Amino acid sequence: VMERALQFVESDGTFLVFGVAPIGDMMKVEPYDIFRRDIRIIGSYAVKKTMQYSINLLASGKIQVKNLISSTYPLENFEKGIHDFYHDPDHLKIQIIP
Q: Is there a contact between 12 and 37 (Cβ–Cβ < 8 Å)?
């Protein structure tokens, strides 16, 4: 995905690499393309800076997360949950519980 995404970066643009890839995974990059289009490639491991801050916000109650999930369905009702998600605008985020 990252290799493909790089082709969509505009000239003089920045390509931000974030998320976890398995150790040892490789990404093919054409150095001339980076040079010619003046692209910057940067990495981000922001979770080390934001995780504790986010936990503190949640614990303090400053951020309300109760309404993030519209509906909860047991695994036995998986099909109904998916149906409701696609056909009922009140079901923006559903949770399937095993």
A: yes
- Domain hosting 75: range is 64-98
Distance of alpha carbon 35 from alpha carbon 22, whole angstroms: 27
* Residue 18 placed within a domain: yes
Paired sense of beta strands 71-74 and 94-97, if any: parallel
- Identify the CA nearest to 81 among candidates 92, 70, 94: 94
Beta pairing class for 40-43 and 94-97 = unpaired
Tell whether pTM > 0.70: no
The total number of structural domains in the chain stands at 2
C-alpha span between 3 and 15 (Å, rounded): 11
The band of 71, judged by pLDDT with boundaries at 50, 70 and 90, is very high
The CA distances from residue 40 to 29, 30, 60, 65, 79, in Å, are 12, 13, 38, 36, 44
Alpha-carbon distance of 89 to 96, in angstroms, equals: 17
